[in-house]
Amino acid sequence: MWNGDPVFYSRLLTELTLSFHIIYATLGVGVPLMIAIAQWVGIRKNDMHYILLARRWTRGFVITVAVGVVTGTAIGLQLSLLWPKFMEVAGQVIGLPLFMETFAFFFEAIFLGIYLYTWDRFKDQKKHFFLLIPVAIGSSASAFFITVVNAFMNTPQGYTMENGVITNIDPIMAMFNPAMPTKVGHVLTTAYMTSSLVLAAIAAFHLLRGNKHVYHKKALHLTMKAAFIFSIANVLVGDLSGKFLAEYQPEKLAAAEWHFETESHAPLILFGTLNEEMEVKGAIEIPYALSILAHNIPNSEVIGLNEFPEEERPPLYIHYLFDLMVVIGIFLTIISGLYWVLVQKGWKMVDKKWMLNAIIISGPLAMVAIEIGWFFAEIGRQPWILRGFLKTSEAATNSTQVEVLVVIFSVLYVLLAVVSVVVLIKMFKRNPVEQELTDRSVEKKVIYS
Amino acid sequence: MTLELLGISVLWLFLFGYIIVASIDFGAGFFSAYSDMAKKKHVIHKIIQRYLSPVWEVTNVFLVFFFVGIVGFFPKTAYYYGYTLLVPVSISIILLAIRGSYYAFSTYGLKDHKLYMFLYGITGLFIPASLSIVLVISEGGFVDLSQHHPTLLYKDLFISPFTWSIVLLSIVSVLYISANFLTYYAHEAGDFKARDLLRRYTVIWSGPTILSALLIIYQLKYHNPEHFVRLMDVSWMLIGSFLLFIFSLYLIVKRGYFGWSFILLVLQYGLAFYAYGISHYPYLLYPYLTIYDGFTNETMAVSLVIAFIAGLFLLIPSLYLLLKLFLFNKNYVKGQL
Predict the structure, then answer these.
(1) Structural domain boundaries enclosing A306
(2) ipTM, 2 decimals?
(3) Could you tell me if residue A441 is left (phi over 0), alpha (psi between -120 and 50 degrees) or otherwise beta?
(4) Which residue of B has its CA nearest to A81?
């Protein structure tokens, strides 16, 4: 591992920062929306439980947002520090959304500061609620702009490159590249889904531990409903992403599916292994499914990996990343859908231990799927950093100090992860829901079930 | 005005904004930690918390805005500074990460934790020191282009007296700006005990601030004579800055008009910062990179400017609201909200 190759370490450090940042960023995008929904429901139903839900989520959110901000600052700078050549080239074409992202971030930061410290300032709760709207818009807009940049790396357009010189630049066309709609859709829906599931897991955890307070039931109900809606949206976007890949980035889809020969009636391969002759063994095969994923038509032709020169193919292990991501995504949709059906039917099964356990693991699983999904997206673009124009190996810094930084940043992230979790646990344990409800003297309205 | 000049002026303005708001933040952290250790915590801690809580995240965005903006307008800076700043800026990132997250942790979660308090205070001085290195490097003499890529000459940088005087100025400025502002803030809050303590800090740090600034001008003459000559062309700005310093300090010493004292201080720093910036023109990295050869294409520049103006329409009312609700809200400042 210690081979002193700056490209390797630059990739490692970027992976490290991004895979840590994405946890907090995902919550940062999704949780404000959930807070807004809870507060809105609370105001509409005049139900203090939902308001308290919004209050408590906000308190937790401040901690995650802090880590999100500092790691976001880190990756923002590391892009230039570790990939100077990339930023120099890409900056000329895709600098606009990067710049706009800081405005979205600015907007969010200002209103978050206001929102946090004005809970009891307004007589009319709605006024306070409206302060949250810019936070939710700002965080989703940040995600939008950054994802636009990532989409550009996959399907760069809006310029021409002649002998290494970039001309004919069209920043708008660069932003609205083919990868943009599905990528943005996927990032946003998964962020909303994951955040609702993480919050649902917390509620389920309290219920499983025997706390039958109606507060937790309301929380679970609200979050699972949201999770179901977003997971359905996510399945749809996922399907469209498959069609996008087939059209614009066929080598990524082909590598993800171990689809070597261009052919029609292509089956979808789940898991399995490859032998020496590049034959798939022990996989689950779903006939026509890849053709359907790619073009919606069972007999349509899907481009195989053999069409691409060997040095331009992504590594084949992304197959497992792709499969895991899809399997988890489907599992989450089933769990949230099942919960919804059970609630609709009024079946008691909803309160069963296995159901609560399933919800508890859904939260972390959703986060795992986000991580795996990003690894798939990024490794699936290799060897390119800017597909078709600039290779990852040509874009990295040449500094040998990166390996030391990898160690230092690892320590930093572990420290931040541990302390942020400890702080969150302490914060909520010290001030449990029951205590806070009594303090706010709304307990009289509460019905225990 | 050319697009290049417009771009760098906007960025310079935001960098100045960052220097002021971040100095208040960093210095506040230091005073907070110091007063904790010197058992004077009860005196100024509340004031500082009250000011910092709603704005800490906004401060950070000024910095992000600057570095994203400079890579946007001048993509070549990513190439030159990206290669050279790997280590110094990584140190800044780590310090910023510790500080930013631990502020949130200690304010909302772990109250009164000694180690965090210490880290919070000490990073308040190390961050400006590490960030100021970027300005030192921009003066030239510390980057080697004879290799395949630009490389930083660590040893030269480390042993140069010029480096250390910039670092010194950044640290004492943080303390001076912060103490001055917090004096005003404590005064507004009606907390006279805190005000008097902070007023004393302001007076203490005024001397070192002006001395280290003079030291830099003196050393610039030897480090980068060309820049020094250009700086002397705008010496009226430096003199103006010095006069503003005297007036500002006078108001503090006389115990009146603390708000005006802070405004004069901002103008004092503004003049000096712009004198420095104007005389640094046209170089982004002396003598290799100017704003003209590092500039992005015109289409991108125009769209960045449009985005910037549109963004201002969003930002200015929001910032105004933030200030109105907290900084300029008497009841909030006095702790009655």
Answers:
(1) 197-386
(2) 0.83
(3) left
(4) B82
